[in-house]
Design goal:
The protein has 334 residues and is of the alpha/beta class. Helix content is 32%, strand content 26%. The longest helix is centred in the last third of the chain and has 20 residues.
Length: 334
C-alpha cells in the first residue's frame, strides 16, 4: 500500500521534491498545501495531485494523506511539523529543521508523543559524491586529522526571508548547514566554533562570514560563505581536504592525471607523496529521490530515519553557535 503524502510548500524546493515522487516506491503525492493557491494548483496540475489546500490546519484535518513533506521557508517549519505530528502524520522536513534549538525540541517532542517518524532532509547524506568523500577519508587516503576547506560566494537566493536573522538565518546556517551536518558524519561531534561575520547587503542576518569548526578527533572545517556579492558575480569557490598524507580533491584538477571513469560515474581523488593519485569513483545519483525513498522506507519500518530530529538538531546547534560567535566575536564551546 502506497504512503499518501501531502507536500507542504509549492515553491522551489517543493517543486524539486514533487518531481521525484514518480520514481519513489510505495509513495504517492495526494495533496499539496500552499498559501499561494495559484502556485499550488499549478503544481498539482503538473503532477496529477488530487487535493489542494491553503493551510496546514485544513490539510491535516482532511484525511487525504498519511505523511507530510515540508518544503516551507525555515521559520515556518516548526509550526507545520508540530501540527502534522499532533494529527498523527509522519514528517519529512527540509533543512535547517528550525530557526532555534527550542523549535527543534518542539518538533522532536511532538513526533515522539504522537509516535510518528520525524526525518530532516539533509540530502548530502544520500549523495554518492559526498559518500565518496567520506569513504576516502575513512580509508585513510590522506591520513588524519584533516582540514576541510570550503569557499562559496554569490548573490544568494532571491526571497528576502533568507536574509532575515529570525526567519532564514543567512548563509552561515541555511547554506552551511549542509557542511556542518556532513562533517559530523565524517568527523564526529563538534567541540568548538569561532566565526566572524558582516553584511554587505542591508539585511538583518550575517550575509558574509568565516567560520572554523573543530571536531572531537581534531579534524577541522574552515569555511567562507557569502550571499552578499553583486548579481551575476560568483567567487572562485571550491572544496579540498588537507591531511598529513596528502590532499583530497573533490574533482580532479587539471594538473592531476586521473583514470577515466565509466559512463555515469565521476570521482574524487587523493594526491599523495610523489604525486601518487588514488581515485574514489562513484555512480552519479539523485540525492533528493534517495532521501525521499529513505523516509518512505522508515515509515514502513524498513530502516531508521536518517537523520532523525535529535541527530539533525546537533547539526543545527553548530549553525547557531556559528551565528553566536560571529555576532559576539567570541569562541563558542559545544
Amino acid at each position: 500500500m502506497s504512503l499518501r503524502i501531502g507536500l507542504v510548500g509549492a515553491g522551489g524546493i517543493g517543486a524539486h521534491h514533487a518531481a521525484r515522487y514518480s520514481e519513489v516506491e510505495n509513495a504517492q503525492l495526494t495533496a499539496v498545501v500552499d498559501i499561494d493557491t495559484e502556485r499550488a494548483n499549478a503544481l498539482a496540475k503538473e503532477y496529477g495531485i488530487e487535493n489542494v489546500y491553503a493551510s496546514v490546519d485544513e490539510a491535516v484535518a482532511s484525511g487525504t494523506f498519511d505523511a507530510v513533506d515540508i518544503c516551507l521557508p525555515t521559520w515556518l517549519h516548526a509550526d507545520a511539523a508540530v501540527a502534522a505530528a499532533k494529527a498523527g502524520k509522519h514528517v519529512l522536513c527540509e533543512k535547517p529543521m528550525a530557526t532555534t534549538l527550542e523549535e527543534g525540541d518542539q518538533m522532536i517532542q511532538a513526533a515522539r508523543q504522537a509516535g510518528v517518524v520525524l526525518m530532516i532532509a539533509q540530502c548530502r547524506r544520500y549523495d554518492n559524491f559526498w559518500g565518496a568523500v567520506r569513504d576516502a577519508l575513512a580509508d585513510g587516503a590522506i591520513g588524519g586529522p584533516v582540514v576541510w576547506r570550503d569557499v562559496s560566494g554569490s548573490n544568494g537566493p532571491g526571497p528576502a526571508w533568507f536574509y532575515d536573522r529570525h526567519k532564514g538565518l543567512g548563509p552561515l546556517v541555511d547554506g552551511a548547514i549542509h557542511n556542518y551536518d556532513f562533517a559530523r558524519t565524517m568527523f564526529g561531534e563538534a567541540t568548538s566554533v569561532y566565526a566572524t561575520g558582516r553584511s554587505f547587503k542591508d539585511v538583518t542576518a550575517v550575509d558574509t562570514g568565516i567560520a572554523v569548526i573543530r571536531f572531537e578527533r581534531g579534524d577541522e572545517l574552515q569555511l567562507t560563505w557569502s550571499w552578499g556579492l553583486p548579481k551575476g558575480v560568483r567567487a572562485n569557490g571550491g572544496h579540498d581536504i588537507l591531511g598529513p598524507k596528502g590532499v583530497l580533491f573533490f574533482a580532479p584538477p587539471a594538473f592531476v592525471k586521473a583514470p577515466e571513469c565509466p559512463e555515469g560515474h565521476r570521482q574524487v581523488v587523493a594526491v599523495r607523496e610523489g604525486g601518487e593519485v588514488v581515485p574514489y569513483q562513484y555512480k552519479v545519483n539523485d540525492m533528493y529521490r534517495e532521501e525521499i525513498q529513505a523516509f518512505v522506507d522508515s515509515v514502513a519500518g524498513k530502516r531508521e530515519a536518517y537523520p532523525d530530529g535529535e541527530d539533525a538538531k546537533r547539526s543545527l546547534a553548530i549553525g547557531m553557535a556559528v551565528l553566536e560567535s560571529a555576532e559576539s566575536g567570541k569562541l563558542v564551546h559545544l
